[in-house]
Specification:
By secondary structure, this protein is α/β, with parallel strands linked by helices. 47% of the residues lie in helices and 15% in strands. It has a seven-stranded parallel sheet, with helices on both faces. Helix 4 links the parallel strand 4 and strand 5. Helix 3 runs parallel beside helix 4. Bound molecules: nicotinamide-adenine-dinucleotide.
Length: 254
């Protein structure tokens, strides 16, 4: 992939799971990364690993629902690396909740973390991307934006909202040469998926309902999904804008 060496990316949710794989992939491509997560220990470990391997890395411990977190991260990106070129909105939550138990407070928390926090991070990076003449924003949505997932009603609603957010940002900032795309992964082998699987009575039932429609009949590795994020950050994807890209081993095809 080209156009990544010497650039700077902000990656949220990078202490583990998909976000950590995205940070790894970007760093391997020569991009400096500012990694953000509320998991201080996990984030410190990821930063230490990236730095030990000679990659430019800064970390910000914070909650993405707090607008100050992305402001701080962008401040560090600008101060240490001179700007910001790529934003990967990866942090998210998917607590399994039955419909009757989905209180307004829980719904708000899920919408805030999965959608509003993406908007707030975008608001923080936009002035810097405009200043350098462009950028790429990748919002992680989910197959749950496109089809129903069991016990994840609020999650599915929040991930569907991410698609509207993505298209609107692409439309509003195309003239500034800023692209914004969303990816809709199927099940990924991360702690999040383990939590959802664990909420079912049996693992077999969980796998049948969560990955049964994925033609590969397995979870993706975080690296398989991260490779699409890295493509969307790169120059090779210059003509891809406002897109919603499924990466789900066929979950949504039948
Ligand atoms: N795992 C899957 O099967 C799957 C499928 C489709 C989409 N996704 C999406 O991929 C993204 C990454 O998920 P994952 O599977 O790596 O999950 P994960 O739980 O393994 O990792 C998520 C990371 O985000 C961080 N995080 C969560 N809420 C935060 C907050 N408020 N502030 C700061 N950090 C926060 C967590 O600490 C964690 O490090 C999410 O947006 C998720 O919805 C996951």
């Amino acid at each position: 992939m080209t156009g990544l060496r010497g650039r700077t990316a902000l990656v949220t949710g990078a202490a583990g799971g998909l976000g950590a794989a995205v940070a790894d992939g970007l760093a391997a491509a020569g991009t400096q990364v500012v990694i953000v997560d509320r998991d201080a220990d996990g984030l410190a470990a990821k930063r230490a690993e990236l730095s030990a391997n000679g990659h430019g890395c800064e970390s910000i411990v914070g909650d993405v629902t707090d607008p100050d977190t992305s402001r701080r991260a962008v401040g560090v990106a600008a101060g240490v690396f001179g700007g910001i070129d790529v934003l990967c909105n990866v942090a998210g939550i998917s607590p399994p909740i039955a419909v009757p138990d989905t209180t307004p407070a829980l719904f708000d928390e899920i919408m805030h973390t999965n959608c509003l926090a993406q908007l707030m991070a975008i608001q923080s990076v936009l002035p810097h991307m405009i200043k350098v003449g462009g950028g790429s924003i990748i919002n992680v949505s989910s197959v749950g934006a496109l089809v129903a997932l069991p016990r994840l009603t609020a999650y599915c609603a929040s991930k569907a909202a991410v698609l509207g957010l993505t298209r609107s940002i692409a439309y509003e900032y195309a003239d500034a040469n800023i692209r914004c795309n969303a990816i809709c992964p199927g099940g990924i082998d991360t702690p999040m998926a383990a939590e959802v699987v664990g909420s079912f009575d049996s693992r077999e039932d969980a796998l049948a309902r969560l990955t049964g429609r994925q033609l590969a009949k397995r979870f993706a590795s975080p690296q398989e999904i991260a490779s699409l994020v890295i493509y969307l950050a790169s120059a090779e994807s210059a003509f891809v804008n406002g897109a919603v890209i499924s990466i789900d081993a066929g979950h949504t095809t039948w």
